[in-house]
Design goal:
The protein is mostly helical. Helices cover 78% and strands 0% of the residues. Keywords: DNA-binding, Transcription, Transcription regulation.
Length: 205
């Protein structure tokens, strides 16, 4: 069990991460946040920040890791929901849109830093996207009986479509997001059908 001091330290660290996430918006990327702003939002003295993170970059990289993990966990839940009955694509898209609505900044940091000016941040986002692709490729290979190469290509296409749709959906009204989600479902099904047809063709050469 954690001691009281360790629990307090973890609680303050969590408050700093949450404070930084809360300050992100369509107009504000992580690189525009200051240490003082984050510390003030977390209700700690700026000097106390360094007990938890080496600098703002370490905080930002922690947020990228957490954002990717949160999204992957939600998408796993979506696939589990689909196993109980329903379209895995439809349920996964609905789950993704729910995340964007309830916690948009988890996705926003991945989106902003994917093409940002910091090489370590770009590399961290690329690693998170690779985790998405690998996990989805493994799932597709197992459930749809795709070859490893085809499962990988399908996963890359799906993740690209979902990320692009997420970028567009972030600041949409709910009614427009619904239209986008319906179109995304069609696009993902087209990719899945194409992969299925390719797999069939490869098996019957």
């Amino acid at each position: 069990m954690m001691g009281i001091r360790a629990q307090q330290k973890e609680k303050t660290r969590r408050a700093l991460v949450d404070a930084a996430f809360n300050q992100l918006s369509a107009e504000r990327s992580f690189s525009s946040l200051s240490l003082r702003e984050v510390a003030r939002e977390a209700k700690i003295a700026p000097t106390s920040f360094y007990r938890h993170f080496k600098d703002m970059n370490e905080l930002g990289l922690t947020m990228v890791d957490e954002g990717g993990l949160t999204l992957r966990q939600m998408m796993r839940k979506g696939r589990q929901r689909a196993e109980a009955g329903g379209s895995v694509i439809r349920i996964s898209v609905d789950t993704f849109m729910e995340v964007l609505e309830s916690n948009p900044n988890v996705f926003r940091i991945l989106l902003h830093e994917r093409s940002g000016t910091s090489a370590p941040f770009r590399a961290a986002v690329a690693r998170e996207i690779e985790h998405f692709i690998s996990e989805l490729a493994h799932y597709t290979e197992a459930t749809a009986k795709r070859s490893p190469e085809l499962a990988r290509a399908q996963a890359e296409a799906l993740v690209t479509l979902v990320f692009n749709a997420g970028a567009a959906a972030l600041d949409m009204k709910r009614v427009d997001r619904k239209v986008l989600a319906d179109r995304l479902v069609i696009q993902l099904r087209m990719v899945a059908k194409g992969a299925e047809a390719l797999q069939h063709k490869m098996e019957n050469r």
